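Quick one: structure for this chain?
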Amino acid sequence: MKKLSCVMAAFIVFILQSAVFPFMFNGVSQPNLIFVFVVLMALHHGQRIGVTTALLGGFCQDVIIGNFFGLHLLPYIIIACICSYIGRDIDKDQWILTLLVVLAMTEICLVINCVILFMSGQYIHIMAYLFTYSIPMLIYHGILALPIDHIVWRMRREDTFYGYKGYRW
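Got it. Here's what it folds into:
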């Protein structure tokens, strides 16, 4: 992986998520650029890089941007592990499959967030929460997934072995 481009992309994603998007979108629903970045890094770069990105992104989003520690960190790690397993079979030209994985992981993240909030004692109506956040998040992440996928795929080095168990044809 190209380290300088990865650090620059992470910095740009963090600045966009914390400073630019809150002014562009209302406070209830805004795209989660860090989440899309974590999903695509885990898909295309393997488990080690995906989980590392999930740890850094979830920690930054919980501590610096958010107000409830663990609400982003735990789902990001779970989703990075799932996406790194799915990413073994995804190639560059399968952009529809990549888009569907990002949308499915968005829904799984919302469900995990519901479970975390429910287990922490927060009163939450699960169907209202999912309906309120699901539709805008799916639209936002569906629009952002493919441009970010292009950026993440360009950070991949072709001469590096990413730890997949089988040889990919």
